[in-house]
Amino acid sequence: MNPIEITMQALDAAERAIPVGQPVYMLNLLRYRTQARYEDGFEAAPCSGREAFDERYRPAFRRLAAGKPLVRMFSVPVLANIVGSPGERWDEAAINEYGDFATFRAIVETEEYRREVAPHRHAALEDFRLFALAKAM
User: In angstroms, rounded to a whole number, what is the distance separating the alpha carbons of residues 14 and 82?
Assistant: First the structure.
């Protein structure tokens, strides 16, 4: 199992925990590979992990999400680990707002996402965390 994979079990658990029809904020913690590492058979020119994410994954995800209620709130460098496991480091944190969890799920469950978008995320990231957040409970 790829530790950065979005699984059906995780999506099902999140769907049970997140109120239907309410906006959801997705917190992404990203650690990039020095060099992107694509699976055998996936054609892509060599690049850094950050380039694979910024120049390949993000544009591909935006194309797939076009017309859906999605707002990129912000994406910023992580400057310091104040509380966390020793040695834990993240390169970037990003928060995106979706109209509801169903919107996010509908995007990541498509065959197009699995075939054309996710390979760039897998190649780009050494480690990844994804948390669903609510504005208010």
Answer: 28
> For residue 56, how far is the Cα from the chain centroid?
13
Rounded to whole angstroms, the Cα distance separating 91 from 45 reads 23
What is the per-residue pLDDT across 18-32, written as a single tens digit (0 to 9) for each?
989 899 999 999 999
pTM: 0.89
What is the number of other CB atoms lying within 10 angstroms of the CB of residue 113?
A: 19
What region does 21 belong to: left with phi over 0, alpha with psi -120 to 50, or beta?
left
Cβ–Cβ under 8 Å, residues 124 and 39: no
Q: For 116-136, how does the pLDDT look when each residue is reduced to its tens digit (9 = 90+)?
A: 999 999 999 999 999 999 876
The string of DSSP letters for 68-111 reads SSEEEEEEEE----SSSSTT---SEEEEEEESSHHHHHHHHTSH
Q: Give the number of residues written for the chain.
A: 137
